[in-house]
Write a structure and sequence with these properties.
The complex is a heterodimer of chains A (about 300) and B (about 425). By secondary structure, chain A is an all-alpha fold. Chain A folds into two domains: about 45 residues, no CATH class; about 200 residues, MetI-like fold (Orthogonal Bundle), CATH 1.10.3720. Chain A is about 75% helix and about 0% strand. Chain A has a two-stranded antiparallel ribbon with strand order 1-2. In chain A, helix 5 packs across helix 8 and helix 6 crosses helix 8. Chain A is flat, with a radius of gyration of 26 Å. Chain B folds into two domains: about 180 residues, Periplasmic binding protein-like II (D-Maltodextrin-Binding Protein, domain 2, 3-Layer(aba) Sandwich); about 200 residues, D-Maltodextrin-Binding Protein, domain 2. In chain B, the strands form four sheets. In chain B, strands 2-1-3-12-6 form a five-stranded mixed beta sheet. In chain B, strands 8-9-7-10 form a four-stranded mixed beta sheet. In chain B, strand 4 and strand 5 form a beta hairpin. In chain B, helix 10 crosses helix 11 and helix 10 packs across helix 19. Classes of the chains: A mainly alpha (about 300), B alpha/beta (about 425).
Chain lengths: ~300, ~425
């Protein structure tokens, strides 16, 4: 009896300890193959100068450079432009938060056909970024674009936003904000559903209304929604690629490049095939994203422990 | 990534095709190409001719999407090389030659007397004296103009002998007064500006200068470069504003509508002009005006090529086909169907097409040399930085010192002195 107990105890112990790993295994394996391994590969590649070709025997033709690619990045004006543009994206994309909140509050009412209005406002998020980019590039198009014509009729001189090196990034960000606002709006709309009506009622009895009601009563209850909205907006801003690629190809003369597009241009673009240099840009972008991702994970971790 | 993926898919398709191919007693030659529908039909006709003459050889062509091909070739040359592959001449083929992926076909050139027949393409088809390419087609660049726009602005329509640089600039003043863009371009894809720059550069300093500049041998701070930008600057005020936001096809529309008078372009644009409603009556072609008197005239004519891969399984029969593609008959037939120029000097062009005859004339009398175009003569990275500089100059001419400084920095980094 005692022997049997001694035998089963370690078995149960091992079953308990193995089971979670078994359940985690598919995820871990996928994560290792598709996330961790590429990160290691990218970082390794960033120390090489390689044009993406193997010779006919299948040997790697790269040349080890050490920190050479990173040193070059430091003095590369195109990299500086991309970095600044990423910063502009990051800051201006945050406008999606107040704008999305405003629309959400505006739509959070019960009138006839409100579902239709909500769907219409959500529409830009559903359509592909490629379509958004095309719509906006026609909107800005010199000579026949709606925006161009509008400015022309007001000032007498049209502005070709996508040809102007100082305006082009703002023009693309405006296009990106359109679907992003819709996304944030949906997040806030679901958040508003969960706002406790009794607290609103109580605040109203205490004479709170307008801004004060929003700031002290509604917003604190929307914190989870705000948190998610900030995260998706930051990530959306940092990985902005499709719009730049569709609307300008980074031009005119590279003024609208962002890091992700510059990475693509260097590694896979028609005049690129500098795999190592592209990988170095990717590593820098990854490091920037890591700051935000760590913050996100740290907060989740803290919230879990408080519970 | 998307590009890579399509490349990989296409590669998968190749593998499936090659395994399911009917294996009879014929000797198979595989050929990977990147043709649009019209050139594809022309190439298939050539294959039929070749197979009729060589009944024991079976040419199996796999056609790729044009853009996807640029990535696919990097995969299939190592993973599963065909016998033959399409690509481009000059510096564009250099990475593949240096990686040992394209085979030396100097013997094909010598056995078929191609050094004579394809004389104008010798520099672009060879690297360090060895030949790696069979050039089978090219097309001229030059100025396409709208005769109606000339008439509307009251400017005399250029004759077949073209214009002088001063006449051209004087015309531009008149066009400007009439509210017509003298020179149009659409540079959102960058390369169209390189055409204008190359011509100004070759007309100012000649072919060798263009070649050396593209090879990084000439400093951007040299007086010769300053002279080029001075002439480029004379043209700058007359170039369509906002060209940086439009594609070359959009600029073609401006020429068709008579909103622009001249367009520095390649002959492939004629199809677009004609689709827009222009005819041989109002569409004209002239060579780019002479700038520095007495410099031998050089022209731009990018060449398309076929290569034997190093991993070819049937190089002997593949070389037979290469010799066939270099022949005057094959080139006459293919180029007549596609509307481009044969590189074989014994081939003939359709006399009824004024643009082809003018182009053939312009290229065969270009004593200065035939340039491949900035982005094929220069190394890819250098080409890109250069084209961004040219585009920026056309938008912000006052930034010239900064542009030249950046170009010079790039040159010193890529070509350490």
């Amino acid at each position: 009896m005692a022997e049997a107990a001694a035998k089963t105890a370690p078995r149960r112990w091992s079953q308990r300890s193995i089971a979670p790993w078994l359940f985690l295994a598919p995820g871990l394996i996928m994560f290792t193959i598709y996330v961790l391994w590429p990160i290691v590969e990218s970082v390794t590649l960033s120390f090489y100068d390689w044009n993406g070709l193997y010779d006919r025997d299948g040997n790697f033709t790269g040349r080890f450079l050490g920190m050479g690619n990173y040193r070059e990045l430091m003095t590369d004006p195109a990299f500086t432009v991309s970095l600044w543009n990423n910063l502009k994206w990051l800051v201006l994309y945050m406008l999606a938060l107040p704008a999305g909140l405003f629309i959400a509050i505006f739509l959070n009412q019960t009138v006839r056909g409100i579902r239709i209005y909500k769907s219409l406002f959500f529409f830009p998020f559903v359509i592909s970024q490629v379509v958004v980019g095309l719509i906006f590039s026609w909107f800005y198009a010199p000579n026949f674009g709606l925006f161009y014509k509008l400015i022309e009729s007001i000032t007498g001189q049209g502005v070709a936003v996508l040809a102007d090196p100082t305006l082009v990034t703002y023009g693309i960000i405006a296009a990106g904000l359109w679907p992003q606002i819709a996304y944030v709006m949906i997040l806030y709309l679901t958040g508003l559903n969960n706002v406790a009506p009794d607290q609103i009622e109580a605040a109203r009895l205490d004479g709170a209304k307008g801004w004060r009601m929003l700031w002290y009563v509604v917003l604190p209850q929307l914190r989870p929604a705000t948190f998610i909205a900030v995260i998706v907006t930051v990530i959306g801003a940092l990985r902005s690629f499709d719009l730049v690629s569709i609307m300008t190809n980074g031009g005119p003369f590279g003024s609208s490049r962002v890091l992700s597009y510059y990475m693509f241009e260097m590694a896979l673009g028609e005049y690129g095939f500098r795999m190592g240099y592209g990988a170095a840009i990717a590593v820098v972008l990854f490091a920037i994203m890591m700051v935000f991702i760590s913050g996100f994970i740290w907060k989740m971790w803290r919230d879990e422990r408080e519970r | 990534m998307v590009h890579k993926l399509t490349g990989a898919l296409a590669l998968g398709a190749v593998l499936m095709l090659s395994t399911s191919a009917f294996a009879q007693d014929k000797r198979v030659v595989t050929w990977n190409a990147d043709y649009d529908p019209i050139p594809l039909a022309a190439a298939e006709a050539l294959i039929a001719d070749f197979e009729a003459a060589n009944p024991d050889i079976d040419i199996q062509m796999t056609n790729f999407d044009h853009e996807a091909y640029k990535n696919a070739i990097r995969n299939f040359l190592t993973a599963d090389p065909p016998d033959l592959a399409n690509w481009y001449a000059a510096n564009r083929m250099r990475p593949f030659v240096e990686a040992g992926l394209f085979a030396d076909i100097t013997d094909v050139w010598e056995a078929n007397g191609l050094k004579d027949a394809l004389a104008s393409s010798v520099p672009s088809a060879s690297i360090d004296g060895k030949f790696y390419a069979i050039p089978y087609t090219y097309y001229q660049w030059g100025i396409y103009y709208n005769r109606d726009a000339y008439k509307a602005a009251g400017v005399e329509v250029p004759g077949p002998e073209g214009l002088t640089w001063d006449q051209f600039l004087a015309n531009c003043e008149k066009f400007k007064a009439a509210g017509i863009d003298c020179v149009t371009t659409g540079s959102s894809a960058l390369w169209p500006v390189a055409g204008i720059f190359d011509y100004v550069s070759m007309r100012t300093n000649g072919y060798q200068f263009h070649s050396d500049l593209a090879a990084g041998k000439i400093s951007w701070t040299s007086p010769e470069v300053a002279a080029v930008f001075e002439n480029f600057g004379k043209l700058q005020p007359f170039v369509t504003a906002n060209h940086a936001a439009i594609d070359w096809q959009d600029a073609a529309a401006l020429l068709v509508q008579g909103k622009a008078a001249n367009y520095v372009m390649g002959n492939f644009a004629v199809g677009v002009f004609k689709e827009g409603g222009m005819t041989n009556d109002n569409l004209g072609f002239m060579v780019f005006p002479e700038i520095t008197p007495g410099i031998p005239r050089a022209e731009e004519a990018p060449t398309d090529t076929i290569h034997l891969t190093s991993g070819a399984k049937n190089p002997e029969d593949a070389k037979k086909f290469l010799a066939f593609m270099a022949s005057a008959e094959a080139q006459t037939k293919w180029n007549a169907a596609v509307g481009q120029l044969p590189t074989n000097k014994n081939a003939s062009v359709d006399a009824a097409d004024p643009f082809l005859t003018a182009g053939f004339q312009a290229l065969s009398t270009a004593t200065g040399g035939i340039a491949q175009f900035w982005d094929r003569d220069a190394d890819a990275e250098y080409a890109k930085v250069g084209m961004e500089g040219f585009q920026q100059f056309l938008v912000q001419p006052d930034q010239l010192p900064a542009i030249l400084d950046r170009l010079e920095q790039t040159r010193l980094r890529l070509y350490p002195q």
